[in-house]
Structures are given as structure tokens and as C-alpha cells.
Design brief:
Blueprint (H helix, E strand, L loop, with lengths): L2 E4 L2 E4 L2 E3 L13 H13 L4 E5 L6 H10 L7 E5 L22 H14 L22
Parallel strand pairs: 3-4, 4-5
Antiparallel strand pairs: 1-2
Helix pairs in contact: 1-2
């Protein structure tokens, strides 16, 4: 697998999106099968995995974290955040198009991801934030 660099960050040229494991497009596969597929992608050379807080919310991040825990130092996990999701009920306020990019929102989202994702549980983990596209209203 060819690799790409973004500054000091290096990841596989091809990434693996995990939205389909979150019941977004129908019934999600069984957890064991999902973990098997995610680990299989890594076995084939994929080191960039994509998830988001709204895929569940947070349940997809937990699944990806569990699946990649044995290889956490070999992968990059990109998680999108900034949607207005209530951390106590996991309900989106309004629609998933409702976004907040404030510093407080970024901190809340990273903390929620850290609570549900085993990849952030060691001192070797790091979180890098990169700007993303924003809606024209922002």
C-alpha cells in the first residue's frame, strides 16, 4: 500500500470509511463481523480509518477503537466532529447539519470520543485537529 504524508502524519493512500457499520443505511453487521472486516482492511495495508461522532452517535467510534486497539500505534483514525449532539442523550439537536465549531464544542467532542474510543486511552495517543469545510453560514 502506498503511503502519503501530511506534515509528520503518515497514512495509507487509501482509507477505510466505517459509516456502514453504524446502522445509517440499514441494519449494521454483527459486531464480531464488523471488527473482522476492519482488521482485515488493516491486514491489507490500510492505516487510515474514518469515523464520526454522529455515526451512532459515538458507537461507531467505540467499534473502530475496539477493532484497532491491537494495532493502535500503526493506524490513523480520523473522526469528524462538530455536530450538535447532546452528550447525555446522544440525540442530535435539530439535524446533523446543525454544526458548531467553537473551541468549547471541539473540547466536548474530543472528550466524548475519548470516553467511548479505546484508542485514546494511553499516553501515546494524540489528537490532531485540522480545519474542515464549514457551511456557508459560518
Amino acid at each position: 500500500m502506498r503511503m502519503r504524508k501530511l506534515g509528520a502524519l503518515e497514512a495509507s493512500e487509501l482509507g477505510f470509511g466505517t459509516l456502514s457499520f453504524a446502522s445509517t443505511y440499514g441494519q449494521a453487521p454483527e459486531k464480531a463481523k464488523s471488527i473482522h472486516i476492519i482488521r482485515g482492511a488493516h491486514d491489507l495495508g490500510v492505516t487510515l480509518f474514518d469515523t464520526a461522532e454522529v455515526y451512532g452517535p459515538w458507537t461507531n467510534e467505540a467499534l473502530v477503537g475496539e477493532a484497532l486497539a491491537p494495532v493502535r500505534n500503526e493506524v490513523v483514525i480520523a473522526t469528524k466532529f462538530g455536530f450538535d449532539v447532546d452528550p447525555t442523550t446522544a440525540n442530535a439537536a435539530g439535524s446533523t447539519a446543525s454544526r458548531s465549531t467553537s473551541s468549547a464544542q471541539r473540547t466536548r467532542c474530543c472528550n466524548a470520543s475519548a470516553r467511548t474510543t479505546s484508542i485514546f486511552s494511553t499516553s501515546t495517543a494524540s489528537i490532531r485537529t485540522f480545519p474542515s469545510r464549514t457551511s456557508p453560514a459560518q
